[in-house]
Design goal:
- With about 425 residues, this protein is an alpha+beta fold.
- The protein has 17 helices and twelve strands.
- The strands form three sheets. The chain has a five-stranded antiparallel β-sheet, with helices on one face. Strands 1-7-6-5 form a four-stranded mixed β-sheet. It has a three-stranded mixed β-sheet with strand order 2-3-4.
- About 20% of the residues are buried.
């Protein structure tokens, strides 16, 4: 009876050791596989298990030391119990059989299976495990401290200095996270987040209205022409200049003159005074969109003139232009968006104004024309050919076939664009 009880106790102890080994292997993998940002979110939301897990992972050397200390106990005690049971049941032959069986059980049921489960379902295993490891770490801290002291000494001797793990994401890594979010974030929101991350890459020069396309009021024009322009304008703010855009007077807000305009009492002098009430706002052409957005907010402005290194006005940028970089066109349905400078032909090609911004075309048409060089289609074509082309010239740029249709005043005016065909769906998928 005594021998039977001893074998039963040994089998029970062996079973507990195997369960402990499986728990240690699976929980270690689960804790190390946790998404730190999801864990931080759940901890901030008040989840106690998440808070305990975050506290454990703040000192990974202590957690690993605890797990390895317990694993060592299992790896030493389990073979001893197997040897005792085998000798009691059948002698030396059963010892060899028991060793092989223990190896298979440890490999399959105490290593591969629990670690695979922990990697696939980290939160399901790691958060409950945090309730177990927290008191164990407190109870066995002297042994863990001594083990880590020796381990850190070995690392220092090998020249591997201990450092804090950093989980901060770079901009490109954050882009990958957003792109891989899948159905967790709506497609439209993904595009907006990507656009926000790209604001630092683009400058006001990339999205500005070129000086040749700035709509403004020339106070040197015939007064009747000026009044007619004010009555027909669709803009709430108009640049006012004298003769040429570089001689800027200011920006006229239509609400300041609309009453006088309606009563027919607006004069050239009052128009100039209304436009020059506030200093004209200038920004360097190399200012990033992220910085300019903050500048608009800080200075409470909605419009700025873009100047080059010589102080000459190159274009006009507005707050709406920057916001459109994030959310897309305000006045067009994104599902049916066609850029105002593009006309689709029956054969599937597109006829485009060569003065159009490449970034605006890419955003509106979902194209991928190069944006790291010239800002307009005309600039792309001229830079690629290194000459002013003749009508009918065709080139291939980033898989887009571009045919020059019209050339005038040493610039390409209109082009025909044939985008690459969409990729064929994967049959296996």
């Amino acid at each position: 009876m005594g021998l039977h009880l001893s074998i039963g106790q040994a089998c029970g102890g062996l079973l507990l050791l195997l369960l402990l080994a499986a728990f240690l292997a699976g929980s270690e993998t689960a804790l190390m596989s946790l998404n730190r940002y999801r864990l931080r979110h759940r901890a901030n939301a008040g989840h106690r298990g998440a808070r305990l897990a975050e506290r454990l992972l703040a000192h990974p050397d202590r957690l690993i030391g605890l797990i390895l200390l317990l694993s060592t106990v299992v790896n030493v005690a389990a073979p001893m119990l197997v040897g005792f049971i085998a000798l009691a049941l059948g002698g030396q032959f059963f010892v060899a059989v028991g060793a092989v069986a223990l190896t298979l059980v440890l490999l399959v049921f105490c290593e591969v299976a629990p670690k695979t489960y922990g990697a696939m379902h980290p939160e399901r295993l790691a958060l409950p495990a945090a309730y177990v490891y927290t008191p164990l770490l407190w109870l066995l801290y002297p042994f863990v401290w001594a083990t880590n002291l020796l381990a850190n000494g070995v690392l220092r001797a090998l020249g591997a200095a201990r450092g804090e793990a950093s989980y901060a994401l770079s901009r490109e890594e954050l882009r990958t996270v957003v792109a891989e979010a899948g159905a967790m974030i709506p497609r439209r929101h993904q595009q907006m987040l990507m656009s926000i991350l790209d604001l630092e890459k683009a400058t006001v020069e990339d999205i500005m209205v070129p000086r040749t396309e700035i709509v403004g009021v020339d106070v040197d024009d015939d007064w009747d022409k000026v009044l007619e322009q004010l009555r027909q304008t669709q803009h709430t703010r108009l640049p006012v200049y004298a003769g040429e855009i570089d001689r800027i007077v200011g920006v006229l807000h239509m609400k300041r003159v609309v009453r006088e305009l309606a009563r027919g009492r607006l004069t050239r002098t009052s128009l100039i005074e209304a436009a020059s009430e506030r200093d004209t706002y200038f920004v360097p052409s190399g200012t990033s969109l992220n910085t300019q957005l903050l500048n608009f907010q800080r200075d409470r402005r909605r419009m700025a003139f873009v100047v080059d290194e010589y102080g000459d006005i190159q274009g006009l940028v507005t707050l709406e232009d920057i916001l459109e970089e994030i959310v897309g066109e305000f006045t067009t349905d994104p599902a049916t968006m066609i850029h105002r400078d593009v006309r689709q032909e029956a054969d599937g090609s597109f006829v485009a104004n060569a003065a159009a911004s490449v970034r605006a075309l890419n955003r509106s048409m979902r194209w991928n024309l190069p944006i790291d060089g010239p800002k307009t289609l005309n600039g792309l074509v001229v830079e690629f050919l290194e000459t002013i082309p003749e009508p009918g010239t065709t080139l291939k740029l980033a898989d887009y076939t571009i045919e020059v249709l019209q050339v005038a005043d040493n610039a390409v005016k209109t082009v025909r664009i044939r985008p690459p065909p969409p990729p064929e769906p994967d049959a296996d998928a």
